[in-house]
Amino acid sequence: MAQFSTLSEFAALLAAAPDVDAQALVGAQERNAQLTKPPGALGRLEELAIWYASWRGAERPSLDAPQIVIFAGNHGVCAQGVSAFPPEVTEQMVANFEHGGAAINQLAKTFGAKMDVHALELDRPTADFTQEPAMSEADCVAALLTGWNAVDASADLLVTGEMGIGNTTTGAAVAAALLGGAGADWVGRGTGVDDAGIANKARVVDEGLALHKSRVPLDVLRCLGGRELAAMVGAIAAARAHRIPVILDGFICTAAASVLEKTRAGALDHCVAGHLSAEGAHGKMLDALGKKPLLSLGLRLGEGSGGAAAIGVLKAAVACHSGMATFAEAGVSDG
Ligand SMILES: O=C(O)c1ccc[n+]([C@@H]2O[C@H](COP(=O)([O-])O)[C@@H](O)[C@H]2O)c1
Ligand SMILES: Cc1cc2nc[nH]c2cc1C
Questions:
Q1: From ligand 2's centre to the CA of 96, what distance in Å?
Q2: Is Glycosyltransferase a UniProt keyword of this protein (predicted)?
């Protein structure tokens, strides 16, 4: 159970987070160098396996128990007409997740992941951030705690996903506040708004930036973010505490993750970017965080879908690293 009841206590927890296991890191690098392949021939899979080993604290790790957590939230800023879909879709999609009918259900099954869904007070949307802070400190802390406690300590990989009509506007506002620029630099089509819709989203983000002047990352999360973003922040931080590597999903997930990186540099070292979303500014956001996406499939769904698809890549990397024979074992001459 997490021990924080204010945003500053949460920030203090981040400062105490564990780092990579240096011994496992060196052991995995040495093992990688002995495997039956030309050096570097498995490209990024080698780097990924070594990264995973270093966080799991095992030179030869396994990846058997991935967990996907999806957080759902509703946004007061929908009153500004920022989405192509109505807010009730958030709750309807939660029911769809629970009945197994969404894309993420199929992806979770495909990659052998356990999937948990947490709906965060959907009947009590956040406030419209063009008028007032999206959340009180108590609401933001409650969402962080939901996220923290959603992580299964026995999982060996976490994918964080979300569902929330209006949250590409929220994510853009958080990104603009933390990474710089104006609304127009960060807004995109989301679920499918037209050019006038994009201009409206830019206006809404600019109004939010003008009203909420603090650039302290956890204040930005509280004033411009949403419950599902805060829950993803809490879950990613909890994963670090448990030494569980994380695959980030798309635009909204990455915006949430940037709150951690801006609070404490290196707070996302246990995370890899699963994919590059079709939401226009996602690439710029990943660049700002120094994250290179594993996949680029034109996805713009959310739900953790791009992160889930990347489980396959990470499983492949770990299987090769931990299962291959060394030159000595296989009697293959090295170069
Ligand atoms: O993950 C992404 O990159 C992504 C990009 C575009 C849309 N979405 C999903 O679409 C919803 C937000 O879109 P919108 O237009 O309502 O802001 C929300 O449920 C997200 O999961 C997600
Ligand atoms: C149908 C639908 C499914 C989604 N899944 C994540 N965001 C979504 C938004 C919509 C509109």
A1: 10
A2: yes
